[in-house]
Amino acid sequence: MSPLISWLQEHWPEALASVASLFIGSLIGRWRAWKRFADRSFFDRVTVSLNYVAEGRFLIRTLLERSAMEIFRNAEMARAVQQACAKPGKDPLLALPEESYWYYLNPILNAISELFADGFIRSESGAGGTEQTYLLFLTCENEAGATIRQRKVRVMMIREQTLLDSATLTPIFRNPFQAARWETLRKVREELVTNPGTPRIRKITVCV
To answer: What is the pTM assigned to this prediction?
Structure first.
């Protein structure tokens, strides 16, 4: 009798349990992926977008999109963000502990700064470069009935004055999803006005 057959005869329950565990784990993973797609909920992705108004039109431009683990580099932080996104509510700003908010925003700032590294170097060396300041905040539009194409972690960048003007300004929207995003900005504006020192909204300076 070969050693393999002998080993299987002695350890077949453990081997069968291992195979079953792998199979069940694969099924669960596929089911979760299908469920996320069916719900259009991709809380394991982080999208950074620049939001602005030009010639009366509301424009949204994606600057980067990465996995939550690529951004936060920490499984517990990524899990906390995903759990905050999964909670339904009217407040689009992520409900993370305020005393820890800096730790969630800082890796996002680092990722954005990488996009403008050339501008910072040009500015430091005197070869040009113009600094621009924006507000930055973590959002997830998860209100019941909201017209959203996909639910994901959205990091929104916008000029402070544009955010303040959002209360009275109604730009032209290309589709209903943009209107929902503009409503998100209006809610963030309320937070900025009523709680100007909130750690959930942070200024960022980039150089182009």
So the answer is: 0.77
